[in-house]
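hi! just following up on the protien thing from before. the input was this:
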Amino acid sequence: MAQAFPSKPLRIVVPFAAGGAGDLTARIVAAELTLSLGQPVVIENKPGAGGVVAASTVARADPDGHTMFLMSNGTAVTASLYNSLPYDTVKDLAPVSTLGTFDLAVLVPADSPFKTLGELVAFAKANPNKLNIGSINIGSTQHLAAELFKSSADIDVQIVPFKATPELVGALRGKQVDVGVEILGPALTQIKAGAFRALAVTGKKRSSALPDVPTAVEAGVKGFQASSWNALAVPGKTPRPVIDRLNKDIVAALAKPEVKKKLADLNIDADMSTPDEAAQLLASDIKRWGAVIEKAGIPKQ
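and the predicted 3d structure came back as:
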């Protein structure tokens, strides 16, 4: 089967609307796979229900490698946040490779009295429930990262979720919230324009876009590490030789300097993996975010 693969056009089902970082990542990779596989690779946007609509489409597709799913850490969150799903996240979706990672940032207005994350944490400890932290939708990576910050720093603060990033940005600029936790990419323009100050980034290492900003762990908040990631997955029963062929082409695409640059321009670090490594990442994030959801008392949907 692997020798005959691919035998027809392929599609990547994306759980986001067109134009966002996830969608653009999928399109960059799809263009490379079209060249290497010799068949068109098209994008099918299916936003809605926390990615459940798109994931269900792929889980039910023929397991022949011609239908892929743009998986993300949101897929892991959904597995923990929903009481039941029309698919088994681990059994019915087989990760092929990670594509990229992008970090979040802890933000304050430029004229905030807090110059470091340590100062913010010290104030919060001395003044319980005096600070509020803005994020977006309950159950989003940003919201759960804010909850993780709260528990990792052992502080009592109010977390205020907004509908989307523009609302959060407006609230932070208008000082309706004291602190914001948001994906770094959308916030970078505001940081560079001098509207916001980044106190920390949440990845394993400093961001190349903000090399002077420490990670949250460097800033003294142990355990506060949270990154968004994207990966490609196929239906769970797809033969391993087909998965390995796709992995080979994805890894080769992500290794190209021009592809790395295109992703870097979106503030995404190209990050390829083996299928097993991608599966381990999914499993560990399901466990990790499940614990955060349970500790924060977020109702299951």
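The radius of gyration is 20 Å.
The mean pLDDT is 94.
cheers
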